[in-house]
């Protein structure tokens, strides 16, 4: 089976994303206001763009402990202070948004950003949006499947006739505005579900895997079924793309990174695990999660490089996106991490993955 690796002229894309959580700083006990959090997110995107990173993403939630409910609105603001960085939803809860409205919003973002909009669609870790927007949770999977199908048709055609189960039909409907790009890049997000990976392969979309901990090898079957299903569905191998997302924190040394990150990571986990009845994360548990063979990207720049390249050997993916600003972390630390990712990690990863692609071509 042919594995598609990173672009031969560039190497792997490197970026960052945020969910905009509103968690108290474990040091001060203070919670930043949503308005200030959004200003920091826009500034982080500007810094990432200026530093030469490739992707900036924002995720959708509909809870008081998150600041972002509308990714296209936030990304549109970001588009006006950035020049080249790609702007993605990470993720859009596709089961509870009308695909026509979603396409119009991201086509508008694409026009405002001169062709930088992308959609990463997921089913959502939380389900509040179903009752909030009047959708039946019993249709959780069916809505997701149908909305992918409709969005891809809207993406490819200026006029659409379509009929489904969960919304009114379209009859020769004009789909406007049209984006700058030929089509808005569309990815299916997967948190470990083979079904999601298979669905991405069937539709020929990109596959974005959220690998937030544990042994990354457990995600290899997702990539395999994605590529196999894509091939069986008749999609061109060169059109298939895989991305990895994960929590990350970079320090000058691995020990420094662990010491600085643990209070925020543990606080983040504790804050959002309280609904599940989990106990406080101990330092010992954190040390195990941050080990050299795990998927938690915490360490020196060299440690982060090694983890990314180890996963690259497994997946042959084209993109890595790091979530850094969690658990009430002060913006100063986020800014330092953006700089380290852009200056110490990204150049090495791009070079190594570019060389790997060239070597693979030479062996043919």
Automatic annotation (TrEMBL):
Q: Which Pfam families match?
A: Bac_luciferase (PF00296)
> What's a GO cellular component annotated to this UniProt protein?
cytosol
Q: Could you cite one Gene Ontology molecular function of this protein? A: oxidoreductase activity, acting on paired donors, with incorporation or reduction of molecular oxygen
Sorted alphabetically, the keyword list is: Monooxygenase, Oxidoreductase
- Check the record and name the InterPro entries matching this protein: Bact_Lucif_Oxidored, Luciferase-like_dom, Luciferase-like_sf
Q: Which PANTHER family match?
A: BLR5498 PROTEIN, LUCIFERASE-LIKE MONOOXYGENASE
According to UniProt, the name of this protein is LLM class flavin-dependent oxidoreductase
Which organism does this record belong to?
Bacillus salipaludis
